[in-house]
Amino acid sequence: xxxxxxxxxxxxxxxxxxxxxxxxxxxxxxxxxxxxxxVVHSKYRSRVLKVAYPKPLTEKLTDRISFSYSSSDKGVYxxxxxxxxxxxxxxxxxxxxxxxxxxxxxxxxxxxxxxIDLRLESMIYDFSHHVRGDASYAVVxxxxxxxxxxxxxxxxxxxxxxxxxTRTADARGxxxxxxxxxxxxxxxxxxxxx
Length: 194
Known about the structure:
By secondary structure, the chain is of the alpha/beta class. It has helices at 2-19, 86-101, 171-193, and strands at 27-29, 48-51, 55-56, 64-68, 74-82, 106-109, 118-132, 135-148, 154-165.
């Protein structure tokens, strides 16, 4: 009886091990704005800018990478995600681009307690992978507002929207296309602010 019990346990463990599937590895992706132009003359060179955390218009900012097949059919990649929340990646890249440009005396994150002269706020309308039939492309649409913190006055506002075809219809292709867009956004943002 003992021998039969041992064989049943061994068979159950063997069969149970055969049915387990190993999950594909999780891929982490980041954003990289790349190099932006250095600005020689700027009317804001003596002023300190604080970059506010981007605000989403529709969806919460997480570390999940979004895609859509239509305006109402959306999802997230199961085995691919951002290396941090999308908001943190965007905030860091915007700060990096503006620091490179030397438009301002200093560019600080919103969490900084230092005194500031200007605040740059942003609203995300879309930052996702669109798949429509055979077409696959990255879409980025963001609006920026430059505000004088001493008066609370809105200095200017502008919406930037981009579309870039992906090389492949997967998360990797989407991230590559998003980085191309982010570089264009960085250059356009510096040009607009100067």
